[in-house]
């Protein structure tokens, strides 16, 4: 993202999302012969089934954990590389031990001490050591890949053979919530160094890690193709208490409509990207997860007068904010979607309650437009034309917003562009009005301070440092405050101020719809890595 090493975009955002959607289902020939499913079984398979086929719309570039920061990549990274801390199931309120058996954060929030678990091993049988931890985390931070921002300002040191200390220059209450991110998976430092790995930008281990994994996770990498499919095989030397049920997991790049057909006819057992309408007709025998996703769709109204003489006027933005029909957008998004009350999604600490969400007020919007002094304004709304989010296209939402604002007296010209073009304009702060989304880099409200003046997304909206000094000071305080009880009201205050006067208009959180065949158990949605394939079982 703009001012940091972060490359992930706000439209997930997990941020850059450049999906390659296949026109049809991929052949199962590459899946191996271990699956005992038939179309007549509706995807059911008996306890002897060993292959799990997962269909997803790929957003994938690499299998190297130090460079991996796309949603599909995080699914893969979670399976291949254990992290120091993790989360239990779908609960993101408390990090729990993984490779670290315990952790303790200092009262000032600057030091995090982790005691390493004894007996954890990499897939080659060698032990996971403090040296591996230090190398892995320093490599992510210093080779400046997509996820390097996660450890900005954090020093990693080996205290003794079983203890690692992370020290931040300022209080960093989010650090325990950051460490579970699969990008911070621990690699076998000896193996990675032997194959070009370093702790700086000269690192050349990516090609090696795209061909084989060097982690301690429940799975190993068998094959990797960022455009078509990735095959994982169970790690026979996995150290964890629960061995994976499936000996092979095949992730295939398949468009949303075909995902539904595949899971219904038994060609796959998991479909990750169905829309709210698609999931209604899957069938009662299938296990479904229907919940609001962690992705917040929002409008960006540029405050830079060099970009727009219209949206730089706060009263015009107020008219847009009051003119949008949020309930109408929810109808388009389908069952399970919710209105975003603020930039922080509803499942995270600091989220605003639903009753504080902005409501449509057409007369108030017209009054704000009149007070702006701008007559019959025209604005260009840009959005990615070839991107889907939870199976949804941006086009219907843009058209609905266009119709909503016409009622207020604002003419909206739709300017869809291929995602690469739209993304460049968005990142470079050139969009007058933009339609994007943001998903969590990690499940903590500090990740949303990027919407403030002078921060990553704020700058993309032409909102420079000093534009709202009181809000900026509040953000600085929230970033370093320790304790959830003290943090929660600070983030609520920040979002209330953003809703009252900022370049950003939170719209909706689309539903996250995942389907598994009747034979698959243990399905839980996670806002960072979507699904933990190693936690899936079989009847």
UniProtKB/TrEMBL annotation:
Its main location: other. PROSITE patterns: PROKAR_LIPOPROTEIN (PS51257). Residues 94-452 form the Solute-binding protein family domain. It is found in: Cell envelope. Pfam families: SBP_bac_5. Keywords: Signal, Transport. Residues 1-29 form the signal peptide. Belongs to the bacterial solute-binding protein 5 family. PANTHER family: PERIPLASMIC BINDING COMPONENT OF ABC TRANSPORTER (PTHR30290), PERIPLASMIC OLIGOPEPTIDE-BINDING PROTEIN-RELATED (PTHR30290:SF10). This is ABC transporter substrate-binding protein. It comes from Sphaerisporangium aureirubrum.
